[in-house]
Amino acid sequence: MSDVLKTGINQVRNVGRFNIGSGAFSETANLIEKKRLSAEKKGDQIGIVFLVDHFFREHKGILSKLNCLQGDAVEFIETDTEPTTDGIDMLTLKLRNDGFTNPAAIVGMGGGVTMDHAKAVSNLLANGGSAAQYQGWDLLTLPGIFKIGIPTISGTGAEATRTCVMTNSDTGLKLGMNSDFTVFDHVIMDPDLSKTVPRDQYFFTGMDAYIHCIESMAGQYRNAMGDAYCRETINLCRQVFLSDDMQNISNRERLMVASYLGGCAIATSYVGLIHPLSAGLSVVLGIHHCIANCIVMGAMEDYYPKEYDEFWEMSDRQGIVVPKGLCNDLDEATYNALFKAAIMHNKPLTNALGENYQSIMTIDRVIDLYKKM
Ligand code: NAD
Ligand code: ZN
Fold this sequence. Notes:
single chain; alpha/beta; 3-stranded mixed β-sheet; 47% helix; disordered N terminus; binds nicotinamide-adenine-dinucleotide; binds zinc ion
């Protein structure tokens, strides 16, 4: 892998403001109050839209801690499936029909699924139209509704990126609304919130940050800023996942920072071979993004040899079992669909393998890789 830094960065927008640290969540109520007051002064709608991970449905008191009042909208977001364009459109329509055409703010509290819902709905309420229209790069023309992200599990970096990932319900294309307008205006990172995450899920989602960055660092399109974010993300992930207790408070905070920095990293650089193969597993077999990445690592020995060893050392250290053998015995049509879903990601594949990636990632090679997982 060359150390030559080949590319600059076109334009990058960061999160407007953030709070971080144990107890930071208690700042949310103040922030919400300020948004209501400023909306009232301007004669705008004062209602707030809260999109909250379904895990917190039973969490007594969470809504009052969020300063949720009568007249606000609260939707608990199911996470069995990842966001789809139809699902986002339906949620946006429901909110519009309930009168939330221009709420004072939208809060997304949860993992990548919930935060991506908040980003997408914010964009759609402001720009009109349907989600599929904006899948791609810089297609939105107006800033979204002021949006606040509160991650409750760490790794995807969705709290920091300029995209919100969704699967197109008609074409199966997994692609986000990549835009400066998709970036959260305010993010509240409180490691107390990720205390309840189940062990396996904590590892799988956390590894998304590590994987984003090892892919970027091995890529051909690198830049000094992306490299700096990646190095520190990988460093933090090592501290967390090579320690004896990946979920203690210090490690939860480290992983929250790693997730955020990893998000900044992918906003300035590209991923590599793992994410396209992982997208195939998600689109064709319905496997969630983060566990799919970990499954793909089973076939990455030849492409990311040092990181392959380190990944398995981390999973051994934490006693996490990554599913294996899921693609051993599929029919031809399914293998073809996996190939098609993976190979369409030309930017990351070019980053990983060069412009000739199609002559390297032939259908036989890709099927072999899926069989190794
Ligand atoms: P997720 O949002 O589905 O959350 C994973 C699971 O953890 C869910 O079951 C959820 O209910 C549970 N959970 C969350 N917080 C919890 C808590 N505090 N306690 C107990 N359980 C909790 O998954 P994720 O791995 O965070 O996100 C994956 C999604 O993120 C995918 O849809 C992927 O496409 C997307 N993604 C987005 C970006 C981006 O830049 N926007 C980047 C990478 C991935
Ligand atoms: Zn990812």
